[in-house]
Amino acid sequence: MSPALPEGDPAPADGALPASAADGAGARAFGVYLHVPFCAVRCGYCDFNTYTATELGGGASLAAYAGTARSEIAFADRVLRAAGVPPREVATVFVGGGTPTLLPVDDLVGLLDGVRETWGLAPGAEVTTEANPDSVTPDGLARLAAAGFTRVSFGMQSAVPHVLRTLERTHDPARVPDVVRWARDAGLRVSLDLIYGTPGESLDDWRRSLDAALATGVDHVSAYALVVEAGTRMAVQVRRGELTLPDEDDQAAKYELADDLLTAAGLRWYEVSNWARTPADASRHNLGYWRGDDWWGVGPGAHSHVGGVRWWNVKHPRAYADRLARGLSPAAGREIVDGDLAALERVMLGVRIADGLPLADLAPAARTAVAGLVADGLVEAPAALGADGPRRVVLTRRGRLLADAVVRALTA
């Protein structure tokens, strides 16, 4: 069961954007997200908008998908031009899913070619694909690199077999060092995605996963706490008492262990759940989300944001393909992000990154709350108070664990 789409206003059938979407566009980076909604199997914890590769047909099938997605790229170009958004080369491309590498390499290359031919790629553009460790080969990774991909993010999740079984992940953890080596030999930057807090995972299990990830010499690690969403198989298992979720103290201890080990290995946090060896190894595409840049999301269920207008596509691949075939926007709904909502999101996203949130982005009343957050050990004192360097709100490690409480204090 994939998540419900947000509530919002109806999206126009022609996808037309208000003229305000063009305001200030030249100062914002432009990224493209390409959603590939296919997986070989559906993991019990996952609530992403994904489908097994064999259950769909027509324009929604695995074989037809790249062509369908390219038709949205062409549609996007027409919409942006009609709105007066100035032409911008694409700074980042992120192919996510699902398992993008279930598509043939030629299809992934074709998707990137569609972006390149439509808008152009900026010099030094970051081009990432997600992948499962069991869905790549050395030749395929080399072909992606030759076509312009610069980065691959592998869904490692854990190095411990019983944890992977609980998550219903199918790859052999012993394969991870191999795929990292293949990717690096191809000239790709590499990220590993980890999940902590799986039912039955001990602190030693989590340490084993972190050690295994670091042993590969990887450039980037994402570590996310497992969230069991309603409607997933894992949620049913928890409700029946078949699985027991860890408590908040366990989750906090695992986050702190990750931060200790990753920092000791030379990786630094740049966002609450992400660590990179150097600034160049950080995910520039994801930083664009957190900084409020523009991006067009291609694919069923994909979300887009341009100039304060946010919209989301219909979820089902058949409905998505049908709308595009009829020349209609695949968007299901949209909203204008302004006023109080824009202010809330600036705080909510800005405090998550290590660069911090400028005090100038806070309402006057909220600025008075900063001193209390410093006293509570949630915000770094020098950066918050301006004693050294720019006046910004930067979370301490304790603040990262309680980021939602910080946001509430700054938006009350």
UniProtKB/TrEMBL annotation:
CDD domains: Radical_SAM (cd01335). InterPro entries: Aldolase_TIM, Coproporphyrinogen-III_oxidase, Elp3/MiaA/NifB-like_rSAM, HemW-like, rSAM, rSAM_sf. Keywords: 4Fe-4S, Chaperone, Cytoplasm, Heme, Iron, Iron-sulfur, Metal-binding, S-adenosyl-L-methionine. It comes from the Bacteria. Transmembrane segments: none annotated. PROSITE patterns: RADICAL_SAM (PS51918). It is found in: Cytoplasm. Its main location: cytoplasm. Residues 24-268 form the Radical SAM core domain. It holds the Pfam family Radical_SAM. Belongs to the anaerobic coproporphyrinogen-III oxidase family. HemW subfamily. Probably acts as a heme chaperone, transferring heme to an unknown acceptor. Binds one molecule of heme per monomer, possibly covalently. Binds 1 [4Fe-4S] cluster. The cluster is coordinated with 3 cysteines and an exchangeable S-adenosyl-L-methionine. This is Heme chaperone HemW. It comes from Cellulomonas wangsupingiae.
